[in-house]
Amino acid sequence: VKRLSPIAYVKYQYRYITHHKLNLKNPVRYTEKLQYLRLFVDPKDPEVIRCAGRVSVRDYVKEKGFEDALIPSLGVYDHFEDIPFDTLPSAFVLKCSHASGFNEIVKDKSQFHLEESKAKFAKWLSTDYGKKTMEPHYSKIKPQILIENYIGTPRDLPVEYKIHVFNGTARNLYVVTGRGKDIRYTQYYIDWTPFDGSQFNGWLKSDTPLEKPKNFPDLVRMAEKLASPFPFVRVDLYDVNGKIYFGEMTFTPAKGTLIFDDDKTDFEQGEWLDISKYLKP
User: Which residue of 135, 147, 164, 261 sits 20 to 30 Å from the alpha carbon of 268, by its own alpha carbon?
Assistant: First the structure.
C-alpha cells in the first residue's frame, strides 16, 4: 500500500492510530495539518530536507547565527569502518544523519561494544527511513554517521526542551527529563503554564513541577528564528549549566499520529497552524 498509494496508507495509518478519519481537503486538527505537510509540502521543500538532516542542519544553524550552540562535531563518516575510534574521547554520541532515533550514546568507551555497534549502523545506514515511516523528506537525506561530543554527565543525559513553533511563533513545548532511567515528558504552554491536555501517546509527565530555566527567553528566541521559514517545526534544544545547545529540528513529530489526553487540544493547536497557502484548490 505504501508503494501503490502513499496517501491511502497515511489515511489508514492515521485512522488506525488516532481513531479519527483524516480530512486532507479541509484539515482542521493539528494532527491533520501535520499529515498534509507530511505528504504534500515537506518532501518538496529543500530547506525542510536540509534541516531534517543531522549533518546538513548544522550549516543552517550557522547561517542563522547560532554556530556557538552546535554540539562540537568529532567527524562525519559515510561508513562505520572509517571511524577512528582510537582517537575519540571517552564519551561521545553517534547519530545517523537521515533518520530519527538512529543514535547511540557512549558514556564510557571502555564499555563500548564495537562489533554490535557496527552491525547496528550497517542496518541503519542501509535503511530508507523516509520510506519506512512514510515521511518522504527523510528519503532525500544522504545517510552518514555524525559523531558529536557527549554533553551530559556520567550519570545523566541533559534535560531537553522541545519547542513547537507554528508559523514562526513558539506556542508550546515539552520537557524531557530522566532519559535512560525514568523518562518523563512534561507539557507546557510557552508561558510555562501546564498544558496537560496535550500529553500524548500515554507518555507520563514529571511527578513534580519543573523549574523554568533562567535562559528560557533565549531558548524561545532561538527556536523561533530557526523555525521562521516553515509553517511548523519542533526545535529541540538543551540547557547545560546555562549554555544552550542545538539538538535537531523535527517537522512531523511521531509522524503526526498523536493521541492527546484531551482531544480538544488537537483542535486548539490546529488553530495555531495556518497552512492555507499550501492547500490545493
Answer: 135
pLDDT means over runs of 10, the chain (281 residues):
88 96 97 98 98 98 98 98 97 97 95 96 98 96 98 93 98 94 95 96 93 97 98 98 97 96 98 96 76
How far is 84 from 89, CA to CA, in rounded Å? 11
CA distance 191 to 173: 10
> 239-245: long-range contacts (C-beta < 8 A, 24 or more apart)?
239/158, 239/159, 239/161, 239/213, 239/215, 240/151, 240/152, 240/158, 242/213, 242/214, 242/215, 244/69, 244/215, 244/218, 244/219, 245/69, 245/70, 245/71, 245/151, 245/158
Element housing 235 (H / E):
strand 232-240
**Which helix (H) or strand (E) is 245 found in, with range?**
strand 243-250
The model scores a pTM over 0.85? yes
Strand partners, 162: 174, 236
d(CA 5, CA 8): 5
The three cell numbers of residue 40 are 504534500
Task: For residue 207, list its beta bridge partners.
Answer: none
Sheet order of strands, 103-106 included: 73-77, 145-149, 92-96, 103-106
Question: Rounded to whole angstroms, how far apart are CA atoms 34 and 231?
Answer: 10
Round to whole Å and give the CA distance between 266 and 111: 44
Tell me the one-letter amino acid at 227.
A
Query: CA-to-CA distance for 100 and 128, rounded, in angstroms?
Result: 12
Are 46 and 137 a contacting pair, CB within 8 Å?
A: no
What does DSSP say about strands 232-240 and 243-250: parallel, antiparallel, or unpaired? antiparallel
